[in-house]
Write a structure and sequence with these properties.
Layout lengths: L2 H4 L3 H6 L5 E3 L7 E3 L7 E10 L3 H12 L5 E4 L6 H8 L6 E6 L14 H4 L8 H9 L5 H17 L7 E3 L7 H13 L14 H4 L6 H10 L3 H11 L6 E3 L9 H9 L4 E7 L6 H4 L7 H10 L2 H9 L2 E4 L6
Helix pairs in contact: 3-4, 3-14, 7-8, 8-11
Length: 323
């Protein structure tokens, strides 16, 4: 058995397609059934930043009820956490995970418990600085595990058993963060984690120069994907085949989303989204995503996008369907 086939990706079962076959119909030439007829593509549409503001919470619920969002990840240390817990009760089909925050936020642990993560009482604001410290051994993995566990436990104490975990700004792409994250998730009974790596269609980037920098950054980080898979395999966790739409964060439009959907590979993939309302509450939050959140909400509730998914034979699933 190959290394990848040993990883517990539920999508691998679906990816096995019957070989091309030829059948004969009486009185006709042989009919050839092409393997494309057996394509199976599954898509999780996950809304990040659940709990950031009441407006973000409202938008996520709307994008789930009236659109294509199937899952969301809740920030345990965000200002509108309690509001998110409340509205979740009215959306029982929404798969809710934990959006672990280790960058640009306030920890649940006291600073003395996690001095290499937040000695000043706040996490490092910039991901680039956080990454340099993590890769250079400047962050204690035990502190990452403790803080991640505290955030997972806060959701559980509120009556939510997380279906999956991911991280704010995808900080778990770095092995020094991933391994303790996996330990915390397993102890908390969480069986799935976002795969932050994936395909980025260069053709979709060609006409969008403002996305080139982000595209380049993702290409530089993609070599970490193999180590990510090995770590997930060793932990016995589940993960999709990868994420799509990450490079478009903050710049998504309906045309680009349609291109991503039309070029979605076989397997199980996650589309990362950030719907919300650009209101007064959001104005008081440190985030670069403002008007783009309302744009994404319109796209995610678009009838045309729903039709593209249906016509493309893409099955919408949630993280609950992985476990």
């Amino acid at each position: 058995m190959s290394r990848l086939s040993e990883v517990r990706f539920s999508s691998l079962v679906w990816n096995r397609r019957p070989p091309r076959r030829t059948i004969r119909i009486a009185g006709n030439e042989p009919a050839r059934y092409d393997s494309l007829q057996w394509r199976v593509r599954r898509l999780i549409v996950n809304a990040d930043d659940f709990g950031l503001t009441p407006g973000v919470n409202r938008a996520i619920v709307e994008a789930h009820a009236n659109g294509v969002v199937t899952s969301a990840t809740l920030m345990a240390n965000a200002a509108a956490f309690e509001d998110a817990v409340r509205v979740t009760k009215s959306s029982p089909a929404l798969s809710v995970g934990c959006h672990v925050v280790l960058v640009d936020g306030t920890p649940l642990s006291t600073p003395s418990q996690i001095p290499t993560l937040a000695d000043s009482g706040q996490f490092e604001r910039r991901l680039s600085r956080f990454a340099l410290r993590a890769v250079g051994g400047g962050i204690n993995p035990a502190e990452v595990e403790a803080e991640a566990a505290a955030q997972i436990q806060k959701l559980q104490a509120a009556g939510i058993q997380p279906s999956h975990v991911d991280t704010h700004k995808h900080s778990h792409m770095f092995p020094q963060v991933l391994r303790p994250m996996l330990r915390a998730a397993k102890v908390g009974g969480v069986r799935a984690i976002r795969n932050p790596f994936g395909r980025v269609a260069f053709s979709a980037m060609l006409g969008r120069p403002k996305l080139w920098k982000r595209y380049g950054e993702l290409m530089l980080l993609n070599p970490l994907a193999r180590q990510f898979l090995r770590s997930v395999q060793a932990a016995g966790m589940l993960t999709p085949d990868g994420s799509v739409g990450v490079a478009a964060t903050g710049s998504l439009d309906e045309e680009l989303f349609r291109e991503i959907l039309e070029n979605l590979p076989d397997g199980t993939w996650e589309f990362v989204t950030h719907p919300g309302y650009n209101d007064a509450a959001l104005a008081n939050v440190h985030t670069r995503l403002r008007q783009s959140r309302e744009t994404e909400l319109r796209i995610l509730t678009s009838a045309a996008i729903r039709e593209t998914i249906t016509q493309g034979g893409i099955e919408l699933i949630s993280y609950r369907d992985l476990v």
